[in-house]
Design brief:
It contains 1 helix and 4 strands; from the N terminus they run ββββα. By secondary structure, the chain is α+β, with helices and mostly antiparallel strands. The longest helix has 21 residues, at about 80-99.
């Protein structure tokens, strides 16, 4: 389903509910660290009713630095260790096929 403007979603749609407060749908924000926060529903009561915030469906993603790569085989072990491991695996597979 496409909505006005050709988008398949509305970002930050706010509906005012008279006498109660504001309901925001699909509220999205990004902080200085690049963390994206999304609230599916965010209801804010009027100050006369206490001004409480009710959030339903909150998720955050991003912002973490990329993990460093870790080699699979220690450089000290090198080719010999990797070759022995490969030979053991291939030898087991070959032995099972023949048996």
């Amino acid at each position: 389903m496409l909505y006005a403007g050709g988008s398949d979603h509305f970002e930050r749609t706010t509906i005012t509910i008279a006498g109660l407060g504001d309901l925001t749908l699909n509220e999205q924000s990004t902080d200085a660290n690049g963390v994206l926060s999304v609230n599916a529903l965010h209801f804010v009561l009027l100050p006369a009713l206490g001004g409480a915030n009710v959030i339903v469906g909150h998720v955050e993603c991003g912002g973490a630095p990329a993990a460093a790569t870790v080699p699979m085989v220690d450089a000290k072990v090198g080719v010999i260790g990797g070759s022995l491991a490969a030979a053991a695996v291939l030898g087991t597979v070959y032995y099972r096929r023949r048996a």
